[in-house]
Amino acid sequence: MIFKLRTYEPGDFEILYEIDQACYEPEIAYSRRELRQYMRFPGLECMVAEVEGKLVGFCLAASEDAQGYVITMDVLGEYRRHGIASALLEAVEQRLAARDVTEVWLETATDNDAAIAFWQRHGYRKQGVRKNYYPGKRDAFTMRKSIGGPP
Predict the structure, then answer these.
(1) Per the domain annotation, does 15 fall within a domain?
(2) Is the per-residue pLDDT at 1 higher than 60?
(3) What would the DSSP string read from start to end of 27-48?
(4) Which domain holds residue 85?
């Protein structure tokens, strides 16, 4: 599958909102208000993926000082397993490293084996558990990866 990555543009917002709604259960997906708030975070990095001009996924991260945080990674179901999420993550991590970020954090549900495997393949390691992080008293692993630094 051929896809293209590019930087988020404000006109993409509604489509990104729709992608997030499609990727997550209603109680976990972000509201428009929440997603807009994230888009205003300091150190925001948002990369989108397109297939034949259609937005099919995005990765949203933010940074402050030397710490980065992956807010969400969303790829529509029919476009998964084609390297899109990996490419989005790599692009976002490169941008964070260019801002002198040296570590990136995220949370992922403890019962989402596919997501845990994805993050671990990309060098993220479990740092602990956040109890009741998600609605329905679902726990999340806090995961961390070192980036940047000397080659």
Answers:
(1) yes
(2) yes
(3) TTSPPHHHHHHHHTSTT-EEEE
(4) 4-146
